[in-house]
Structures are given as C-alpha cells and as structure tokens.
Amino acid sequence: MFNLLKTFLLALAGFLYGAVLAVIGLVEAGAGHGSYVLISLSSCPFLWVFQDAGAALFGAPILWCVVGIFLGGVKHRGRTTAFLITVLGHYASIAFCYSRGLFGEWSSLNAKELVLFGLGVYAAGQVALWVLFALGLRNPSAAGR
Questions:
Q1: pLDDT tens for the chain, residues 1 to 145
Q2: Which among 49, 47, 78, 43 is positioned nearest to 62, based on CA atoms?
Q3: 3-state helix, strand, coil in the chain (%, to 5)
Q4: 45: which DSSP letter?
Q5: Residues whose CB falls within 8 Å of the CB of residue 118, separated by 6 or more in sequence, listed in order
Q6: No. of H helices and E strands in the chain?
Q7: In whole angstroms, what is the distance from residue 11 CA to residue 24 CA?
Q8: Sign of the alpha-carbon torsion through 104, 110, 114, 116
Q9: Single pTM value for the model
Q10: How far apart are CA 20 and CA 12, in angstroms?
C-alpha cells in the first residue's frame, strides 16, 4: 500500500512539475510572438516526435507524470530500466532538438528573467529527480533484483 501511495504522489508531483514548466513556457511563448525554448526543453521528445507546440505543451505534464510513476518503482528492475530509458531519452532528444534548431529562437526571448526562472525550475526538478532516484536505489532489500 505504501508503494502505491508513493508512486501516486511521485506521479502527481511529476505532473505538477511538468504543468508548471508548461505554464512558464506558455507565458514566454507570448501567443506566438515569443520563444518556445522552455516548452521545448521541458517536453522533449514530444516536440521532436510531433513537431507541434501544442503537443509539446501538453506533453510536459504527461512526460514527467510517467517519470514519476517509474521513479516510484525504482526498487523493481523493470521500472528502474524504464526510468533510465525515459529520462536519458529525454536528455538525448534535447540534444537532437537543439542541434536541429527545433527549440525556437533564443534571440526572441521576451522576458529573460522568466526564462531564467523557468530554467531554474527545470534544473531544480532534475536535481530532485536524481536525488530521489539515488535514495530509492540505496535500499539494500530492494524487491525484484
């Protein structure tokens, strides 16, 4: 029961993390007159797969919710593998999207302070993600190993 609750809470936290990043990115996009840098960053690979800002906007909460679900089960080999594939795939898709110019124009950033805030939220979430992952692996009586 505790594992189910932990997984639910991590999925909810992931969804909220993605939603906050999407909202900050939406504000920065400025109804199409700004930049999609934050939306792109937080939702890769949705941007790459669909190449649509709307899919990327809704993809961020979905992506981080799924990561939260996998994070809740890091004591199981399958979910640990799924977590690593998902997160490392996210990072790889960021590199791919950036190299292809799919991030939008950095020069068209409207509110640089907002972008810095959004990047800070993204970075803080990534640090928390890896800390929780490491703490989840520390338990020597991990099931499914």
A1: 568 888 999 999 999 999 999 998 888 877 566 677 788 888 888 776 777 777 778 889 999 999 999 998 888 889 899 999 999 999 998 888 777 766 656 655 666 778 889 889 999 999 999 999 999 878 655 444 4
A2: 43
A3: 80, 0, 20
A4: T
A5: 21, 24, 25, 28, 38, 42
A6: 6, 0
A7: 20
A8: positive
A9: 0.84
A10: 12
Tokens of 143: 């099931």
Q: Where are the domains of the chain?
A: 26-138
Distance of CA 53 to the CA centre of its chain: 15
DSSP 110: S
On whether the CB atoms of residues 85 and 18 are closer than 8 A, the answer is no
CA distances from 39 to 27, 35, 56, 77 (A): 10, 9, 6, 31
Question: Which stretch of DSSP H or E encloses residue 96?
Answer: helix 77-99
Task: From residue 30, give the alpha-carbon distance in Å to each of 20, 22, 24, 70, 92.
Answer: 16, 13, 10, 33, 27
Of 125, 118, 140, the closest CA to residue 28 belongs to 118
Q: What's the mean per-residue pLDDT of the chain?
A: 82
